[in-house]
Amino acid sequence: MIQWAGLAVFLLAIFIAVPAFVVASGRSDLYYTLTSVALLSIASAGVWLTFYIGRINIGQGAFALIGAYVSAILVTKAGMSFWLSLPLAGLFAAAVAIVIGVPILRLRGVYFAMISLVLTQVVTLTALALPITNGAKGITSIPLPGGISIFGLTLIPDFATLENPRLAFYYAACVLMVLTFAAMYRLVNSRLGHLCRSMQQNEELASSIGVNISYIRVIVFSISSFLGGIGGAMFGSIAQSVYPSSFQVADSVNFMLNCFLGGLGYVFGPMLGTLVLYFGWDLLFELGRFQLLAYSSLLIILMLFLPNGLLSLRLPGKKGADR
């Protein structure tokens, strides 16, 4: 009952209270900031999933960039609706993850981390080299998402006709975020989630009782990359442009830090971690050249005193990803 009440408060806050606050403050630029937080938390949720199978993923930026380019190409060159290109971008990223995941997911620890770290740079160099991505020029002038109507009933309005498309993007990002974390919660409490937990503890033991660990690793990695792909596709649509530098290695590292800060033992850890890191960096802007020093020092202190993440403050004694 308490969980449902908390969910209701959360939904009221993001869909009603936050827009009302933005209107009252006159800070319409906050829509873009909060939209970015929602989308980054989706990509970070994918990274959290790979931690769930005992893999340190520092390559989510690669799949976000893939998703951004696939959606941009389908919209600008094929004339496809953005809403159709969005899942296709995620599926393409997932397909790439399956191809490269079969060999690299055999690695563990720092070895997998280093390989995944290289992925973002590989995708960036590929985007620079391929003619379809326009090289360093990138893809610009991406149209805003069009409307969706069924039997004359408008389900999603044409963003180009709206007075404030930033608000529309905010709502779209929040809906995607809610659906993502609802699916994540369901996944970790499913049979697949229980198998992932067993693999996280001891892969050899899980394999000895009949768990197909290779298959599960690839499935989870593909789901993780799917989330990165749709997050990147949404970013490309908001910016109306995609460049090889749209997602860099630093972004992949931040996706990982979001999970650590929020809490690896909690499904909603990536969401809280993204919110704190994003606004924390901006709040430290006034420190000028000492911004990075203060930012890094605070992260180290938090990791030392809160090794289980910020959510461990609210949920003492409740360990486990299903909390």
TrEMBL record:
It is found in: Cell membrane. This is Branched-chain amino acid ABC transporter permease. InterPro entries: ABC_transp_permease (IPR001851), LivM-like (IPR043428). The chain crosses the membrane at residues 30-51, 58-76, 82-102, 109-132, 138-156, 168-188, 215-243, 255-281, 293-313. The lineage of its organism: Bacteria, Pseudomonadati, Pseudomonadota, Alphaproteobacteria, Rhodobacterales. It is a multi-pass membrane protein. Keywords: Cell membrane, Membrane, Transmembrane, Transmembrane helix.
